[in-house]
Amino acid sequence: MGTTVARQPAIERDHALALLREMLRIRRFEEKAAELYSDGKIRGFLHLYIGEEAIAVGTLQALTPDDAIVATYREHGHALARGIPAGAVMAEMYGKATGCSRGRGGSMHLFDVGRRFYGGYAIVGGGLPIAVGLALADKLQGRPRVTACFFGDGAVAEGEFHESLNLAALWKLPVLFLCENNRYAMGTELERHQSQPDLYLKAESYRVPAEQVDGMDVLAVEAATRRVADAVRRGEGPCFLELLTYRFRAHSMYDPELYRTKEEVARWRERDPITTFERRLREGGLLTDASVATLEREVTAELAAAVAEAEAGPWEPVADLLKDVQAATQAPAPSA
Amino acid sequence: MGTTVARQPAIERDHALALLREMLRIRRFEEKAAELYSDGKIRGFLHLYIGEEAIAVGTLQALTPDDAIVATYREHGHALARGIPAGAVMAEMYGKATGCSRGRGGSMHLFDVGRRFYGGYAIVGGGLPIAVGLALADKLQGRPRVTACFFGDGAVAEGEFHESLNLAALWKLPVLFLCENNRYAMGTELERHQSQPDLYLKAESYRVPAEQVDGMDVLAVEAATRRVADAVRRGEGPCFLELLTYRFRAHSMYDPELYRTKEEVARWRERDPITTFERRLREGGLLTDASVATLEREVTAELAAAVAEAEAGPWEPVADLLKDVQAATQAPAPSA
Amino acid sequence: MVKTTYREAVRGALREALQSDPRVFLMGEDVGRYGGAYACSHGLLEEFGPDRVRDTPLSESAFLGAGIGAALGGMRPIVEVMTVNFSLLCLDQVVNNAATLRHMSGGQLGIPLVVRMATGAGRQLAAQHSHSLEGWYAHIPGIRVLAPATVPDARGMLLAALREPDPVFIFEHAALYPLEGELDPSGGVADITQAAVRRPGTQVSVIAYGGSVGKALDAAQELAALGIDVEVVDLRTLRPLDDATVLASVRRTRRAVVVDEAWRSGSLAAEVSARIMEGAFYDLDAPVARVCSAEVPIPYPKHLEDAALPQVAGIVRAVQGLIGGARG
Amino acid sequence: MVKTTYREAVRGALREALQSDPRVFLMGEDVGRYGGAYACSHGLLEEFGPDRVRDTPLSESAFLGAGIGAALGGMRPIVEVMTVNFSLLCLDQVVNNAATLRHMSGGQLGIPLVVRMATGAGRQLAAQHSHSLEGWYAHIPGIRVLAPATVPDARGMLLAALREPDPVFIFEHAALYPLEGELDPSGGVADITQAAVRRPGTQVSVIAYGGSVGKALDAAQELAALGIDVEVVDLRTLRPLDDATVLASVRRTRRAVVVDEAWRSGSLAAEVSARIMEGAFYDLDAPVARVCSAEVPIPYPKHLEDAALPQVAGIVRAVQGLIGGARG
Ligand SMILES: Cc1ncc(C[n+]2csc(CCOP(=O)(O)OP(=O)(O)O)c2C)c(N)n1
Ligand SMILES: Cc1ncc(C[n+]2csc(CCOP(=O)(O)OP(=O)(O)O)c2C)c(N)n1
Ligand SMILES: [Mg+2]
Ligand SMILES: [Mg+2]
């Protein structure tokens, strides 16, 4: 297919506000998470999605509750946009038993099987085969569902990317591959880890339809996702979206960011998916200072409640350490 | 680049006879090996190259003694075409201490470091990263050499193929990727294991120049190899040749060949690289019954000597079992 | 009871599973058109069709991971990794996903996945095709590891594995496929929690699994002729190990030899020895001995391969050494 | 003598190697511009340039294999696999190529390759980033496996590894990088054949390696206060194991506890226990005990991670158990 010029569909106000709200929820949540990390409330690795919110929000808007999500260790945004309560996500990052993974996974391993959110994978590329298998199960059971699989530009270099794309294409599986190309794999710039930096061209080499989309434009992301998700759901095989974006913050809280300039970051910040969208809505007369203030107030309130819930949550008792290493009970006998 | 019509360069007689002789040497060697396998002289896995000889002969004709070779478990032809004495190869297949790997590797693991023949790899795809590393060593030491890496169509599905092509292309390493596309990975046909069966297109997706070549035409193979090998040696980065061929025999001696029809095999046998080349030379008046008879006589004599050498060769003493698991002595101290 | 082979027992179990449970499907390299590298799925593609018997590309990591995903999606996949040698390419999916997701998700995810692979040496396939890595799999929390050594276990353990809610890895020693034995075709699932005493004895316990059980029984025969009464224990389940059966045997015999086709250092035999140390130290009359493979890439020639692998003669020597070496 | 850190000792050794041998180059994910995930190569790209300090794509199998090939081609590559957790993706290259080619080629090929990786848990990185798989590497014939536990070893073992004609794998416990210690900057290569007695003692030998050595020493302190005199042995080289030092210690103390951050079943601790069984059984007053990680994917919350890993208190209890449990 190739690059599509970011279209400018007529914006419907409530929907636009919903998109803005979702992006803001993620932004404020992660800004708070960074604070809590400094306070030692959150530990381990913390990978912020700040700057990339339009992707999680735009793509997940276009998917249904029946669809499955497979994400990476940089998945707070996807979890929140999927509807996992902020309190459950924050509690997970605290490591509390009330967390969405009972506190065992932390920031990198958010799960919510009820919402078909199949997690948070911290081995780069490790989620792709899982997504292929979820889609295979749907196809074998004749369920018109999409499995949306998020991964970064760095993951594209891993062998599992290659094997997974071939398998999904060969078997025409309903996988929507969503490549969050933020131009860096940790400290290694795209051109220094990919011989072909136009990643959607790689996808096409598997005969997978692929497009490049402006990942800083939530409407463009949503529109592209709707377009291809329907094809995937109809059983036409996998599709691939390369979502061009940028990570505003360090790779993780350990990263001294020696590999890029403040200027480069500043240039990209001008394309902040939230502020640009907000400006656009104001220009379109869809947003007023008052409505922004309300939005911010509501988001802040939700966040405060989430933190309170995380603080109040209990720790899993040490006695339960070995619980669920394997299932307590055996599976039911074959149905036939 | 894309497909090149197999050109018909003017044939120089001595050279043509040399090519024919090399292909015949391989053919007769393997026909004998099949016999010896039934006799129990050769054991383990035996993968015959019969039908694909034009590739090993054509490519290696175009390479120099300084170039390195990395091959697969189907590498008798490459070893012989590289100049490893037939006796040393046959002795290896017998498991004799006089074999080119001291008998330890057998058919799948032929080595001759003096001839820069870096082996025989039996984990599909496992040789590609090794080839990339050999080429990296040449580049770092400023040696204008090519590392020729042979692998099959099935290997293209492995993650290591993907990682190796990206790395070689990214670092502009002097690797010549030689894909022996014989249309089957064991019993699985090309279209059933590759979503994009035109494998050279995959290579192009890494920005590696690639061509499809008639692998049944020894002259076309040689010409294409010369063309691209020079570019690789000059430091222009890796190249990829997809050599279209067919395996006339079973995958291994265990294979009942349930997955293809006798008719399909028969159709391909009409394109036998040896008989077709022979016919062409006769038509060009370059070959007479007499010269063919001489050739066959010489090849038969060499083969008989090789078998005799293998038969006569000693077994490695059991006492040496642990020899060379690690080097006996330490390496010299750093040069500087 | 019918006379059949280990291979046919596996094939029969696969067939029965595909017939009895629509969620079951088989996936792997050449399991379909080729009929399986070891012919364990011969004819199944024709009988069950390409949706349920799926030939995969050479992509161990992707199709093992796809098996995990399909299990999460409600299927009961049986993944065949052609041999353990190639399973290194998907070990990340095993360790970090298959074995981990249930616990790491706080119990939300279950992965009823069965993975079968051929293992072991002895057929002159040389260093890259002769590994015995069951011990590595037995190190991984969250999975169950089985090593059927008999015709009934080849069938019954596979059927039992399909009842498990968590990943089960079944290691079939390639040398066993032609093994003949009696089978009750209507026999149900096998117990997959206990080791089995294959031959009762009083003086020394020889503990083995998979392809080494037969060698242990042969050694016991020879030793019987020499007047040494050996008990042979087949571990059967490598994870979790059945300590109770092993320790009970050793407490009776007061001496043990552990046989393992893996390289000695870091072998599963080391774990068995350590557990006997911990559980029966005061009952031992002599140190537990190990008969394992030499620490060398397995060479191609028969005489060197034989020298590298555990053999009956070596087991006999080890047992005699214990009897000799015993105190008082 | 200078006061420095484990991290700086590694960095200094890398720098010295790059300076002293033009064949040496460093390759791995983010070793260059980023400065190394653990800052062990900070500044080296600037000093030695992109040919000798090479950032790789996320392609563990390709760049580990490329290290093997470059070594075959006359270079002396140092490959950094960011952490052991990711090394599963290149384990095939390690087992089937790096460890095998010399023997399988009849001695023709040599692979002077050094591979470094961070290992271990303890920083709340959860199940996929907390593995301790040194024991698996120690199972592989054809390679040498090192686990520096001190600042001098962090430097000296790396320099020694670069002298080896065969692949050497160095496991740096991530929790040790900030460790401070005295270093002789002009000190040469370290011995990489022997274990070291880090603290002499008479009543119990506590055998540990890598990140557990410090815990063993702390436990010895506490036990001294309780009047129990503990000897602490640092294995240092995990393959080949230095049996002599271990057995000599156990023969003196007649009791041993093996500490290993790996999961208990199939841990390197099992191998050490089995070797003591085989080499010092008649000298033991009590069964060898193991203190290992719980058999569970390592959880994220601190209290659960602490509960899953070996701790000083657990080592103390194990030693007391032996003293209590001894006969006569
Ligand atoms: C297999 C593997 N190798 C290395 C790492 C260490 N690591 C974590 S994130 C990362 C960069 C991934 O980049 P990308 O895929 O672009 O995702 P991003 O972080 O930019 O969102 C690396 C190298 C890992 N987690 N897994
Ligand atoms: C990683 C791996 N998986 C599976 C196998 C078993 N196997 C050996 S050869 C082969 C087919 C390879 O096909 P291709 O690459 O096309 O080479 P060809 O045999 O056709 O020359 C397979 C599946 C293997 N050796 N290695
Ligand atoms: Mg990125
Ligand atoms: Mg092929």
Task: Give an overview in words.
The complex is a heterotetramer, with 2 copies of chain A (336 residues) and 2 copies of chain C (328 residues). Chain A is an alpha/beta fold. A 7-stranded parallel β-sheet of chain A has the order 1-8-9-5-4-2-3, with helices on both faces. In chain A, strands 6-7 form a two-stranded antiparallel sheet. In chain A, helix 1 crosses helix 2, helix 1 packs across helix 12 and helix 2 packs parallel to helix 3. The radius of gyration of chain A is 20 Å and the shape is globular. Chain A has 12 helices and 9 strands. Chain A starts with a strand and ends in a 24-residue tail after the last helix. In chain A, a hairpin with a 2-residue loop joins strand 6 and strand 7. The longest helix of chain A is centred in the N-terminal third of the chain and has 26 residues. Chain C starts with a strand and ends with a helix. The longest helix of chain C has 15 residues. Chain C has 12 helices and 14 strands. Chain C is globular. Chain C is 36% helix and 21% strand. The model of chain C has no long low-confidence stretch (mean pLDDT 97). Chain C has a 7-stranded mixed β-sheet with strand order 3-2-4-5-7-6-12, with helices on both faces. In chain C, strands 9-11-10-13-14 form a 5-stranded mixed β-sheet, sandwiched between helices. Chain C has a two-stranded antiparallel sheet with strand order 1-8. Chain C has 328 residues and is an alpha/beta fold. In chain C, helix 7 links the parallel strand 6 and strand 7. The interface between C and D is large, with 52 and 52 residues. The complex binds thiamine diphosphate (2 copies) and magnesium ion (2 copies). One thiamine diphosphate sits at the interface of chains A and D.
